[in-house]
Design a protein that fits this description.
The protein is of the alpha/beta class. It has two domains: about 1-70, no CATH class; about 70-275, Rossmann fold, CATH 3.40.50.150. It contains eleven helices and 14 strands. It has helices at about 5-10, 20-35, 55-65, 70-80, 95-105, 120-125, 175-180, 195-200, 205-210, 220-230, 270-275, and strands spanning about 40-45, 50, 85-90, 105-110, 135, 140, 145-150, 170-175, 185-190, 215, 235-240, 245, 255-260, 265-270. The strands form three sheets. A nine-stranded mixed β-sheet has the order 5-4-3-9-10-13-11-12-14. Helix 2 (about 20-35) packs across helix 3 (about 55-65). The two termini are about 25 Å apart.
């Protein structure tokens, strides 16, 4: 993302409405601070922290805006409870993991196949003191167990390698059903750069279990949508300001929210998901 796109994202973000100067100040402060320190421990909100290094593009949106993926992160915050299991597939630095297990106090299984990238969620788990609530699975998920070539050095867009990719390494592949061992999460967030269909093929028992209530996925391709539809999921749109599920978007999101069963537009998500909590967004300014 170039400078102009970054600034447009920052100034257009819902959490920066009405105070553009402080938003730009956070951007400027990070540009300086990240070049002077190897690691910055950023005070996020509700006691959560993020350990961030220069070049971690999966983290900087949280510094600039509070919640990088505002709609989807709010859904996680407004839905999970301490009794729930959350699965973060493609955890990257672990921001969703921190939301799930530090702020919501749920248990999280964080899946990150890249050995170097996996150090980032482990660091954030340590910084937030949530080792007892998080398991890190250092493997790719797929339709069957085995190994797969995985790209190196692409930060947030490392992915299962294509034939033209030269910088690759072999990583272990496990299936979602095997990793869960019969447990069923309430919410799954998945961002695996186009490999989502293979992950879901290895999680058929999990998808069929009605205790799984929602999936946040970056993929919108026909294979993924058909597979989730056959498992009983429908697309919905979360309105974080009203905490409701809607049939049409109120705030844009780059991800797709799939929830089990028919959607009654305007229904409160806490009633649908049996969640008694609503977390204030006291992010650092």
């Amino acid at each position: 993302m170039g400078l102009s796109q970054t600034l447009k994202f920052i100034l257009g973000h819902p959490m920066n409405r009405g105070h553009p100067i402080s938003a730009l100040a956070r951007f400027a402060r990070w540009q300086v601070q990240s070049r002077l320190q190897d690691e910055v421990i950023f005070d996020w909100f509700d006691g959560a922290k993020l350990a961030v290094r220069h070049g971690m593009t999966g983290a900087t949106g949280n510094i600039y805006c509070g919640l990088h993926e505002y709609v989807d992160m709010r859904f996680v915050l407004d839905t999970l409870t301490p009794d729930d299991l959350f699965v973060d597939i493609g955890a990257n630095i672990g921001s969703y993991t921190v939301l799930g297990s530090k702020v919501c106090c749920a248990r999280t299984i964080a899946v990150e196949p890249d050995p170097e990238t996996a150090n980032a969620p482990r660091r954030n788990i340590d910084v937030n003191g949530i080792k007892d609530r998080v398991s890190v699975i250092e493997a790719a998920l797929g339709a069957t167990a085995g190994t797969v070539s995985f790209t190196v050095g692409r930060d947030t867009i490392n992915r299962v390698a294509q034939p033209e990719d030269e910088l690759v390494r072999a990583v272990a592949v496990r299936t979602l059903d095997e990793v869960l061992g019969g447990e069923v999460p309430k919410v799954i967030k998945i961002d695996v750069e186009g490999f989502e269909a293979e992950v879901f093929r290895g999680g058929q028992a999990t998808l069929a279990d009605k205790r799984l209530e929602a999936i946040i996925t970056e993929a919108r391709d026909d294979d993924v949508m058909d597979m989730l539809g056959r498992a009983g999921f429908v697309q919905a749109y979360y309105d974080p300001e009203r905490a409701t599920l809607e049939n049409l978007p109120t705030i844009p999101s780059n991800n797709t929210l799939m929830v089990r069963g028919a959607i009654e537009s305007g229904r409160n998500v806490q009633a649908l998901m049996s969640c008694p909590c609503n977390h204030p967004l006291n992010h650092s300014t």
